[in-house]
Write a structure and sequence with these properties.
- The structure holds two protein chains of two kinds.
- Chain A is an alpha+beta fold.
- Helices cover 22% and strands 28% of the residues of chain A.
- In chain A, β2 and β3 form a beta hairpin.
- Chain B has a domain of 94 residues.
- Chain B has no helices and twelve strands.
- In chain B, β4 and β5 form a beta hairpin.
- Chain B is elongated.
- The chains are: A alpha+beta, B mainly beta.
- At the A-B interface, β3 and β6 of A face β6, β7, β10 and β11 of B.
- Chain B: Belongs to the SPCS3 family.
- Chain B: It is found in: Endoplasmic reticulum membrane.
- Chain B: Keywords: Endoplasmic reticulum, Membrane, Signal-anchor, Transmembrane, Transmembrane helix.
Chain lengths: 130, 142
């Protein structure tokens, strides 16, 4: 997953590549960085869990906030929605690699660059086959 | 200190709002392999520190609320010596579960952000119990 905005700086920047897991059994706890989608919106958001209220049966509602944002994400949620639920979670951030994503962004924007990368990768594979 | 006010950022019901003032004295160390080493090693870019309150209520078996957080960059001294801090975020309960709650535990934790690699969440050793009073504070003193 690639970062597009600066709401989690200085930890993550545009172009950083994030590694996610999505094990449903993993409990959601404060401090964790989760990837979630707001109903009706395509682009997922990667923010930190700020508050959780979990019932005995495992039903959980939680609130998120970007590290670099002054306020929590309630303003981003759907109108009338005050909390996120397990079903909104797409993944949990477990690790990342910086700036690698910029290569993918460039490949998308400049097809010639994509062919060059693929060509170089092809060469690399051939040479290593020796 | 605790007040019962309308939560103006959430649903329109009366929920308990807690006010906590705290001091933090901490030395952040890397406790890997049982040894204590300097936390900002070659692959640690920053620490996201947060003070969280954890408690149980009639409504919810588990509640966790981050009261305060701080980003510490590599190069800063990994010690905290803070006094008389007020919580950064409103400590609203999902209901009225703070009143008379004797078992609200405050813990300091941190997310290690590497230059590249895994993002672990570490919980510091040492936590504090904050008992909330049985009555609401009606005077505006916060």
């Amino acid at each position: 997953l690639l970062f597009f905005s600066g709401s989690m700086e200085p930890a993550f920047h545009r172009g950083d590549l994030l590694f996610l897991t999505n094990r449903i059994e993993d409990p959601i706890r404060v401090g964790e960085i989760v990837v979630f989608r707001i109903e009706g919106r395509e682009i997922p958001i990667v923010h930190r869990v700020l508050k959780i209220h979990e019932k005995q049966n495992g039903d959980i509602k939680f609130l998120t906030k970007g590290d670099n944002n002054a306020v929590d994400d309630r303003g981003l949620y759907k109108r009338g929605q005050h909390w996120l639920e397990k079903k909104d979670v797409v993944g949990r951030a477990r690790g990342f690699v910086p700036y690698i994503g910029i290569v993918t962004i460039l490949m998308n924007d400049y097809p010639k660059f994509k062919y060059a990368v693929l060509f170089l990768l092809g060469l690399f594979v051939l040479v290593h086959r020796e | 200190l605790r007040k019962n006010v309308e939560d103006f950022t959430g649903p329109r019901e009366r929920s308990d709002l807690g006010f906590v003032t705290f001091d933090i004295t901490a030395d952040i160390l890397n406790g890997k392999n049982g040894l204590q080493t300097f936390i900002f090693d070659w692959n640690v870019k920053q620490l996201f520190l947060y003070l969280s309150a954890e408690y149980s209520t009639k409504n919810n078996a588990l509640n966790q609320v981050i009261l305060w957080d701080k980003i510490m960059l590599r190069g800063e001294n990994p010690r905290l010596f803070l006094k008389d801090m007020k919580s950064k975020y409103f400590f609203f309960d999902d209901g009225n579960g703070l009143k008379g709650n004797r078992n609200v535990t405050l813990t300091l934790s941190w997310n290690v952000v590497p230059n590249a690699g895994i993002l672990p969440l570490i919980t510091g050793s040492g936590h504090v119990s904050v008992p909330f009073p049985d009555t609401y504070e009606t005077t505006k003193s916060y």
